[in-house]
Structure formats: C-alpha cells, structure tokens
Protein: DNA replication and repair protein RecF
Amino acid sequence: MHVTHLSLADFRNYARAELALTAGPTLLIGRNGQGKTNLVEAISYPSLGGSHRVAGDAALVRAGEEAAIVRMRVAHDDRAIVVELHLNTSGANRAQVNGSVVRMRELPRYVHTVLFAPEDLALVRGEPSGRRSFLDALVVQRSPRMAGTLGDYDRVLRQRNSLLKSARASRLSPDALTTLDVWDERLVTLGVEIMAARVALVAELRPHLTAGYAAVAGDDHAATLGLRHSAVDPSGDAPLDDSDELDAERAAAQFRFSLAERRRAELERAVTLVGPHRDDLVLTLNGLPARTHASHGESWSYALALKLAAARVLRADAVAGDPIVILDDVFAELDEGRRERLADAVADFEQVLITAAVENDVPERLAATRIPIVAGTIQASDQPGDDHAGGDA
Structure:
C-alpha cells in the first residue's frame, strides 16, 4: 500500500496543497515549523482515527476556517481508492471512500499506517493510557469491527460512572444498585472482548519486538511484552499476563468478582476502578520494567522496536500489502549507528515517508527522493527527473 497523491484544503498551515508521491522512501525536508509534520499527520489520520499530536480536530483546521479537507489516493498493486475527510470545527466529521459515505471509524479498513514520532518515547516512559491507545489503534487496524466494540465499551463506562455518581448522591438507593448490576454485565461482555483482542495482538507482537529491538539497538537484550489486567487483581498488583490466548470464561468470572469486590470503593469515588480502561501494556528489558530501568537510548530503541513490530504484524495480516511507514522527525534523536540500523529495518517496506530538518541526519539511501517544504508550500523535488510539483499555501 502506498499514497500516490495527497490534496489538502485549509489543513493546518496549508490553504491548498497538492503532493504527488511514489512507492519507496521519500524525504520531506525543511526547517522546523514549515509544515512537514502536517503532511504526514494528514496521511496517518484515517488509520489512527485522529491526530498523533492533538486530542481534538479543531487545531487541524486552518485559523479562521470552519473545515479542513484531506483527500488522498491510495494504491495497492493495480487498484486504487480515494479517501476523503471533512474535518469540522463544529459538528460531526464526514468521510468518503470512492465517493461513497462511510463512518469515520471504518477508515482503518482502507488505510494502514505505522507512524513513529518523538512523542512516542512516552510509550516507554509515559502513562498507561498512551500504551492502551497504541494497542487499541493497532487492534482496530487489524480488525476494524473492534472500533465499534471499543466505542460501545466507552459509552457503557460513561453510563456506569454517571450511575455511580447518582447512587452516591442518592445515598445508594436500591434502584440505582439494581441498575448498576445490568451495566456491570454489559461492561464485562465488552471488556472481555477487548482483553482477548489485546492478548492476541501482544502475542503476535512479541517475536517481532525482540527482533526489532536487536535490529535497531544492535544489542541482544531481552525485550518483551506482557499485559496487566486490573480485572484480575483490583489491588493494582495483578500478575503479568504473557499468555498467547485469553480464557474468556475465566476472565469474565474474574471481572465480575473484581467489580463486586470494589463496588463500595467505586460508590465512594463515583468511578469504575477495574476494566480494560485501567489495564497496562508492560514493557520489560532484560527482565526489568523498561519504564524505570531503560536508559534514554534504550527507551528510544524500545519505542522504535514497538512500531517496527506493529508494521510487521500489519504486513502479515493485511490483504492490501504493507502499511505505510512514517518516520516523523525521528533521525535527529538517534546516534549514527541507530540511524543506519533503522534505515535497514524499514528499507523493504513499500512506502516510507520521512520528515527531517537536517538532511544529513537521514541515511542517504532513504533520501534519494527529497521534497522541500517551505512555509506551507510544497516545492518541486530537487532530484533530476522527479516531478513532485506542489501547491501553494
């Protein structure tokens, strides 16, 4: 899979932009603040279900405008589709594929990307919520129907939390508690489905992570993954789950037991304390938690290895070929050895898009096609014979 053309209207700092792309590596080069990341942000939006930089969409719309349009042509073999997004500052966003309206949550079915950016260091050193988001975005790319399950779980969770607040305010009325039992069962049903999808995904990521870490770091450290389920042990010290498959019946029973055990505390705090929304992806290096024991360089290598593992899993699953690999301002953070090893690790993917402020940071074999970006304007490629004409800002 690769993007052959990207059109933008009122997206970030682009009033209008046209970008032609080919398979293979492409370097988007320019000083900081010119709009390089904005381009790859637009390309990755459909597969991630949003921006990798901000939580809401308002910041994606050019100042003073009400909506932004992103249109891209994506090719695989001799087939191509056109994906179009209308991102609004108010009201619902809209999406089309080949002119037909689709739901936003269905977009990962059509575009697969794996993006690595400096913010991804938080996958190793940050809070559990970032690691959950990484897993769930990948779960949806592999199985788009899971977007509905995750959305339903979030809605049930909000309803349950609202009921807990009402129960606390009404001093635990019997009616509120009876209704809570109904929401508990719905939470368990959806939660176990999410837990099972995450367990299966982590099992597939593990061998690719080990290989990816060795490839990037050049060290034979033991990098591995496990899941910590709050529904198994609500005390917060749940044993690490490194199984390849979830026992759904047992997990449901444990989930129900944990909800019952924590009900008094939940009523006091008016919040749901156990479930997939409080689980964590645990990263270990040589048997120790990477979050607290990995050095800065090891943390970068680990985050890169996670994204490489994701790309390999999507490659194995997808009928549409390789995911589009995006390296956003990554090479500046790496030493020369890691730069070369990362270039080796991504060289065989169908399309690799790289952004950089300093051309010498990027290994030469990834910079054969260079497209300068200047103040929201896509310049013509500086490579003889290439035609990557750009649109004005």
